[in-house]
Amino acid sequence: MSKALGHSSIRSAVIISGNPECFIAGADISMLAACKCEEEFYKLSREAQEQLSILEHSSKPVVAAIMGSCLGGGLELALACQYRIAVNDKKTVIGLPEVKLGILPGAGGIHRVLKLSNSYLDAIQFVLTGKNIDAKKAMKSGLIHHVVEPLGPGIAPAKVRTRDYLEEVAIDVARQVHII
């Protein structure tokens, strides 16, 4: 992360998935299951926190372009970005569902949700219940900055057109934020 953001030719960045169904669905649970002791969990969490801290404190703007599931570690990554855009459709859900498994978000997600949310009470409820929210509710709560409406069918399928449009909007935002 620091190598990419530290490169002189990079002025801003966009994080977007090639899969229109899923931005990032979080950590692989089998990776967590492989941890044999408390120290291994702590190390994994600390490394994730360090990487997301680099992202969050980057002098170069980073935009998360969210289409599809943005859950767990995926949301933690998005919250570390300086700007977040999400598609307003049924497939785009945002949440920290790991609490339903008895696992706390380990990469700073709780802290960032509380810091970014417009309502402390809503943020606490969001973090403690593990319920997913849609893009509009995430924007209302302060977790998302901008919502993009999905496009209809054309020459390319609607999902592909929407993903391409989301990418264009995110790149434009990254350029504008860099100029400011």
From TrEMBL:
GO cellular component: mitochondrial fatty acid beta-oxidation multienzyme complex
GO molecular function, one term: enoyl-CoA hydratase activity
One GO-annotated biological process of the protein: fatty acid beta-oxidation
Coiled coil, from the record: none
InterPro entries in alphabetical order: ClpP/crotonase-like_dom_sf (IPR029045), Enoyl-CoA_hydra/iso (IPR001753), FA_oxidation_alpha_subunit (IPR050136)
Domain of life: Eukaryota
Pfam families: ECH_1 (PF00378)
UniProt protein name: 3-hydroxyacyl-CoA dehydrogenase NAD binding domain-containing protein
Organism whose genome encodes this protein: Protopolystoma xenopodis
Lineage: Eukaryota, Metazoa, Spiralia, Lophotrochozoa, Platyhelminthes
